[in-house]
């Protein structure tokens, strides 16, 4: 007997500053979409202006999920995102609405769409130990270790891919099982839904211009004042731990390590670098349909709406 066809959930993804949320809100104004945020920065409470969270006006136009989920500095894993996103999808559908996932955190989206290893609690000391070994002995030594522990996973990883290398070894240390073994077991959680990627990647020059303009607007809208309020409320160490672009740079200004103009220029530079990494990530995801402008993307999802409304 053939398996039942899974329901398809649309995803709008792309780099910071590309206009993803703008398209999503316009769609939600004319179609019964509700938005699930896939942004690792917007899950953090109190960090509002610098993470470009939806404004009060935007929240009146569309309903958002998975924003303000954790305290600054508190860990929010891809596993937790997958769990919460699937719950949000069910809630939205039970309300006779349609879920629309919007965000640029590739790790979250990959976990949601391809599956995630079910490890609820990590031990940060293990990762720190592996990172220390990496620094002292180099990636080759860790790769040799992975080849012994999990040759199947090692064959899929480039020896210089430090993130995947450390994660595979970390999984073994936490569970006593190789990543390959876990992926074949019930502890590898897959979504009950299928997904369709719509990736918005305008010309790089345009993205960089939008980023520069957006940072200037964030400053005008009170980002510095927001940070000063957070510091007054005792969140200095938490801000550092959260490591969010826009906040660390202005914290350095407040502490006298940078001038305001230097801090603002650094926010722009770091945001552009982040966008560049996101572009590379999404272009390497073969399941993504690429769009260069917001009107083209808006039209395509509107056209495909019938696929999600049945």
Radius of gyration: 20 Å
Counting H and I runs of at least 4 residues, what is the number of helices? 15
The number of distinct β-strands equals 8
How would you spell out the order of helices and strands? EHEHEHEHEHHHHHEEHHHHHEH
CATH topology of the largest domain: Rossmann fold
CATH class of the largest domain: Alpha Beta
Poorly predicted segments: none
Major sheet attributes: 6 strands, parallel
Whole-number count of domains: 2
| Class by SSE composition | alpha/beta
Please outline what is shown here.
56% of the residues lie in helices and 11% in strands.
Describe this structure in words.
The structure is a single chain. The chain has 310 residues and is an alpha/beta fold. The chain folds into 2 domains: 8-115 and 190-308, 3-Layer(aba) Sandwich (Rossmann fold), CATH 3.40.50.300; 124-188, Histone, subunit A (Orthogonal Bundle), CATH 1.10.20. It has helices spanning 20-30, 56-61, 78-94, 106-114, 124-137, 139-149, 151-156, 162-175, 179-183, 204-220, 223-232, 236-242, 247-254, 260-283, 294-308; strands spanning 8-13, 33-37, 64-65, 98-103, 116-117, 188-189, 194-200, 288-291. The strands form 2 sheets. Strands 3-2-4-1-7-8 form a 6-stranded parallel beta sheet, sandwiched between helices. The chain has a two-stranded antiparallel sheet with strand order 5-6. Helix 1 (20-30) crosses helix 15 (294-308), helix 5 packs across helix 6 and helix 5 (124-137) packs across helix 8. The model has no long low-confidence stretch (mean pLDDT 89).
